[in-house]
User: What shape does this take?
Amino acid sequence: MRVLVDAQLPPRLAHRLKELGHDATHVFEPGLATAKDDVIWEQALVRRAALITKDRDFVTLRVAKQSGPQIIWLRLGNCDTNSLIDRITGSLDLVIAAVDRGEGVIEVIPQ
Assistant: This one.
C-alpha cells in the first residue's frame, strides 16, 4: 500500500508502516510540513498514494469532487502516538482491503 501521512500525524506512523513493508511517506519528508491542503492533495495524486489524515477537510473535498486520492480518515480523537499506531496497524488488513476495493474514504474508528 502506498500512503502519504498528513502533518498532524506523527512521522513515526510512516516509519512503522515502512517497517511493515508499505510505501509510506510523511509530509515532512518532501518538505510539505506547512503546505496547504490543496498542495498535499496534489502530492497524494502525483504519488498515487492514499492520504492518511485526521482532517475532515480532506474527506469533505473527496466527497465534493467524487474523485481524488483515497482518504484514510482517522477518527480516533486525542490519543498518544503508540495508541494511534497500534490502532492503525491493528486495522491494517481491513484498511488495505478497502484501498484495494477502491473505496474513496476509509474510516478508522476507535475499537
Observations:
- The domain at 2-108 is CATH 3.40.50 (Rossmann fold).
- The mean pLDDT is 93.
- The longest strand covers residues 2-5.
- Helices lie at 11-19, 37-47, 56-65, 81-90, 92-101.
